[in-house]
Each structure stands twice: as structure tokens, then as C-alpha cells.
Amino acid sequence: MGRAFVYVILGGGVAAGYAALEFTKRGLSPGELCIISEEHVVPYERPALSKGFLLPEGPLYAAPARLPSFHTCVGANEERLTPKWYKEHGIELVLGTRVKSADLRRKTLLTATGETISYKILIVATGARALKLEEFGLNGSDCDNVCYLRDLADATRLVDVMKSGAGGNAVVIGGGYIGMECAASLAINKIAVTMVFPEAHCMARLFTPKIASSYEDYYKSKGVKFVKGTVLSSFDIDSDGKVTGVNLKDGSRLPADMVVVGIGIRPNTSLFEGQLTLEKGGIKVNGHMQSSNSSVFAVGDVAAFPVKLFGEIRRLEHVDSARKSARHAVAAIMDPNKTEDFDYLPFFYSRVFAFSWQFYGDSAGDVVHFGDFSGNTFGAYWVNKGQLVGSFLEGGTKEEYEAIAKATRLKPPIEDLAELERQGLGFALTI
Ligand code: FAD
């Protein structure tokens, strides 16, 4: 049994949705494109899962986000692509189906249902999976009240567990953005939250201690507790298979009615190991998002691509990069001669409680803070080798975010850090 397509997108997440839109804008013919996804729904804006999706029901809140409201490509103010849209454009959807092997020499994919799907051009958009406790030698992922958060099924389960744990204690393992966003949502749902992570402060890969303490202070004011500098050592599990307590390496124990684990992700490259060149844990591509096999492109979290601005290959795990790299790959596939190399300014954002921040560029070098850290608007610049390379802003306006993005892209020379600190946000606004 087999079907053949000109283009196949493997994976049905954010990048797949934005790639599909770009194909149709560039003149896709019906029957040419197929999307294969392990998920049962058409592509959606994954960031909604840790934000609007987890909001409680009730008079104080807008109704929690549910599909179809956040299908791609609403996150970039584009058309919302519903199942009907794919049908109208003659795009074949193979949902709820895992691809179990890829033969790049024959240009075929074999699904878990036994179907062989062949392509002329393959776009790999398999994203990443959540790292499991077992990969760190710990047990408990299969307990009824232990949750991860990567896809709609995880988020639906998290909401169910949250409802059954209402009024109880949650332990969030991991201080990255998944941990931070989940902790905020749990607190909003009136669950007592303790966050546990090994670093000295939250969001350690990006935040400076000063930035982190602003957020941590606010979380504390909402009842969230922080246990830092230690890690999980084991769970206490009752006879029903539920975690009742979390034991930490420092010898302490936290009571738990539920646990959320956000300890990082791993790109889904396994189908291509030995067939494509890998780098930085992802599939290495050129400025056209083309891999070491000229018929195979890779986009989104799974792609390691040249970031021109910093002159090096990077793999980013952010939604904006997924959207833009996907569109760029399709431009390069359909219009190769008119498509320049991808020139991307790394961008990441998060929203927790009433906070909202954006970060552009690179968090390397010396840091200069600015703004009122006890107020609503504050930020930081990163200066490396005499140039501005990164900018962070909390609580900015649209114009202010555009200004820090523009300033970061320009990489202006910075001679005097004290002067940059004095100018603060004004530096970006006047550049
Ligand atoms: P994904 O969206 O993960 O899609 C991958 C798809 O491939 C999935 O549908 C998966 O089922 C499918 N797949 C994988 N392997 C196979 C296979 N073998 N066969 C069939 N299908 C397969 N980024 C931000 O910048 N800001 C945020 O606030 C933010 N919030 C987030 C919140 C959450 C809860 C999560 C999980 C991520 C968040 N991100 C955020 C990151 C962002 O969502 C990702 O960078 C983005 O989804 C990557 O898109 P992608 O298409 O590469 O991968």
C-alpha cells in the first residue's frame, strides 16, 4: 500500500502549519502536499497549551482557550487553518499516525499503520519531545498525577489532574519557561505550588539574577514557593499509583497532590540518524533550510541552521523561529533562485500572570540593566566584544519591542556600559 506526493511535511506542529500556509500562497496545486502527524488534530499554536489552555473556568477569566480557536496561523495574525482549510486546498492530512522509519535513498516514509508514503521533497518538522525523569535515572513518569507538557494530549491530561488536585499541593520540577508558565497557571487555579530546580534562580539560561528576582518576588506574592539548588531524588507513591510526596536530594520532602515535570526537550531526530548530518542535537541545514540530502529540508525545533547575525549554527526551540524557518524553507523550495539565505534574529517571549516579556538576540557577554525593577517596565542589554548582541524587555509597548529588536539586529558598537545604562530603553528608541 502506498501513496506518492510532491511535498511531504513530516510532523504536524507549528512549523507544519506555517509551511502549509506558505505553500498555498506560492501556488500549491491540490494533491501535491501531504502532512503526516502523530497528533490527532491539525497544526496549532503550541504556546497556548501552557497559557490560555490552562486558565480556570469562571467569571474572573475569559473562557480557557480550546481548539479550534488556536490553530495555526493565528499566532502571527494570519489566517486560521482549520481542517476545512486543508481540505479546500487539497492538502492530504494523515493524522494520528507515527512515521516509524524513513528511507531517504528511496524517498519513502513508512508509517506505524504500514503505509509507505513517498515524496520528491521532504520537510522534516518533527519538533522535540519532553525529556523524561527516567532519562535521569528516576522513576515515576507513569504515575497518574505526574504530568509533562508538550502536546494537546498532555495539556488535556494536565487540566484533568489539576481539576482533581484543586485546593491541594503541586510540585513543579524545573525552573525553565515550561515550569514558570505552569507554576503561574497552577497558582491561578488556586493550587499551592512549590517549584524545585537545581540552579540559583529561575530561567537560568536567560535571566540574570536581578531579572529573575523580580519574577520570583511576584510569584512569592502569589503564594508560590521556591526550593533551589537541589533536585528530585524519588517520589513517594501510594498503592493507587499516585505520587503523594516528593523527596529531594537535600533530604527534604514536599507533600504533593500532583507533579509537573519540565526538565527540557530533545529534538526528534532519531529517524534520520546515520542518514543526515546532525549538529547541536538537530538536523544541520544551510541558509535554505536544506539538509545534507538535497531533497530533505528541516525546520523548527529540529533544525540547526546558520544564524548569520552571530556567524554560527544554532538550534532554537522557540515558536517564532519555527514559523519563520518553515516559511523560509517553502520559499526556498518553490522559488530557490529568488530566495536568499535565512537571516534570522533569534526571538523568544513568555507570558506569566500579568507579565509579558520579549527577548531578542544572544544572552552573551556583559549585562546592563535598565528601567524600574519594582515597577512594570524593565529590561537588560547584553554587550559582547564591544557590540550590543541581546535585549530583554518586560512590559514594553509594541513600539518599544520593535525598537529593541531593531537595535539588536543592528549590533551597534557600545564603548561605555555606564552610558548605555543611563540611556536605558531610550538607547533602543533613538537608534
Ligand atoms: P512541534 O510544534 O513540536 O511539532 C512537531 C510535530 O511533529 C508534532 O505534531 C509531533 O507529534 C510530530 N511528530 C514528531 N515525530 C513524529 C513522527 N515520527 N511521526 C509523525 N509525527 C511526528 N516558544 C516561544 O517562543 N514562546 C512561548 O511562549 C512558548 N511556549 C510554549 C509552551 C509549550 C507548552 C510548549 C510545548 C512549547 C512552547 N514554545 C514556546 C515552543 C514552541 O511551541 C516550539 O518552538 C514550536 O512548537 C516548534 O515547532 P515545530 O513545528 O518545530 O515542533
TrEMBL record:
Domain of life: Eukaryota
Named cofactor requirement(s): FAD
Record-given protein name: monodehydroascorbate reductase (NADH)
Assigned protein family: Belongs to the FAD-dependent oxidoreductase family.
Segments forming domain FAD/NAD(P)-binding: 7-325
UniProt GO molecular function: monodehydroascorbate reductase (NADH) activity
Keywords: FAD, Flavoprotein, Membrane, NAD, Oxidoreductase, Redox-active center, Transmembrane, Transmembrane helix
Pfam family, one: Pyr_redox_2
EC number(s) on file: 1.6.5.4
Gene3D superfamilies: 3.30.390.30, FAD/NAD(P)-binding domain
Domain Monodehydroascorbate reductase 3-like C-terminal: 345-428
InterPro entries given in the database record: FAD-oxidoreductase/Apoptosis (IPR050446), FAD/NAD-bd_sf (IPR036188), FAD/NAD-binding_dom (IPR023753), FAD/NAD-linked_Rdtase_dimer_sf (IPR016156), MDHAR3-like_C (IPR048618)
SUPFAM superfamilies, A to Z: FAD/NAD(P)-binding domain, FAD/NAD-linked reductases, dimerisation (C-terminal) domain
